[in-house]
Design the sequence.
């Protein structure tokens, strides 16, 4: 049974590294090609491509995922199933059909809650005391497919985006390692998501991440720990009628 891994981010890299450590080395990596980085516009590979090269895994690029040349190349690899973790693009139906066992996504929330691009940030912003990771089969709708398995964890008041991301990534990797053999052998009861319980997250942009200090302390604290890493949060310092933007990277919540 041959499988591929799809991802681009540090969350993806964490999952991929766990798979490799547990003797589940993919036969193929699907990711995006190197992008220009910094003022000098140097080409920089994403974390998944770097790890793939370290482990001598074949890589193909999905920059033009809808092009027939990409689909034909994918078909030629004769891959049975794909594992997706933070891929960052909608995968079209004609690509999903390439895989006899489909594409399986590792999503860092307890679906159908927190569908969409920012489930980790949203869990922190909403002051959720628990969240989790879901393994589901991708269909043509966003984070909509049937569930293979889920695992929950507590959200600590000390968690920020990075610590919660790592926690959920490791949980997802362990869950897929345990469930993949049973899924491939059709020994798992797959269940549809409860559509009436679905909630959706949104993408955040730096220009909209100005801290509103009039909000309750816990709201401000959650805002900083959820969004300070990406896209970043900021406040203004004003002196002599001149405003300076100050980026806030970390906060502590003090209690009496």
Sequence:
């Amino acid at each position: 049974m041959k499988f591929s891994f799809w991802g681009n981010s540090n969350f993806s890299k964490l999952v991929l590294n766990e798979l490799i450590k547990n003797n589940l080395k993919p036969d193929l990596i699907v990711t995006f090609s190197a992008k220009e980085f910094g003022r000098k516009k140097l080409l920089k590979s994403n974390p998944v491509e770097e790890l793939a090269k370290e482990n001598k895994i074949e890589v193909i690029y999905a920059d033009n995922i809808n092009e027939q040349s990409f689909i034909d190349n994918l078909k030629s690899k004769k891959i049975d199933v794909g594992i997706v973790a933070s891929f960052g693009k909608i995968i079209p139906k004609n690509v999903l059909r390439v895989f006899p066992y489909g594409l399986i996504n590792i999503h860092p929330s307890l679906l159908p809650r927190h569908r969409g691009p920012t489930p980790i940030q949203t869990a922190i912003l909403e002051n959720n005391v628990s969240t989790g990771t879901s393994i589901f089969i991708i269909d043509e709708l966003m984070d909509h497919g049937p569930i293979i398995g889920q695992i929950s964890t507590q959200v600590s008041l000390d968690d920020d985006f990075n610590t919660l991301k790592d926690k959920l990534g490791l949980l997802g990797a362990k869950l897929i390692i345990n469930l993949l053999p049973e899924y491939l052998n059709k020994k798992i009861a797959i269940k549809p998501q409860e559509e009436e319980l679905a909630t959706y997250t949104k993408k955040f942009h730096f220009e909209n991440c100005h801290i509103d200090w009039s909000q309750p302390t816990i709201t401000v604290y959650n805002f900083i720990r959820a969004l300070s890493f990406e896209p970043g949060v900021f406040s203004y310092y004003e002196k002599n009628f001149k405003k300076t933007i100050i980026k806030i990277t970390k906060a502590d919540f003090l209690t009496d």
User: Anything to note?
Assistant: The helical segments are 10-21, 47-54, 68-76, 93-96, 119-125, 161-184, 217-227. The longest helix spans residues 161-184. The chain has a mean pLDDT of 93. The longest strand covers residues 130-137.
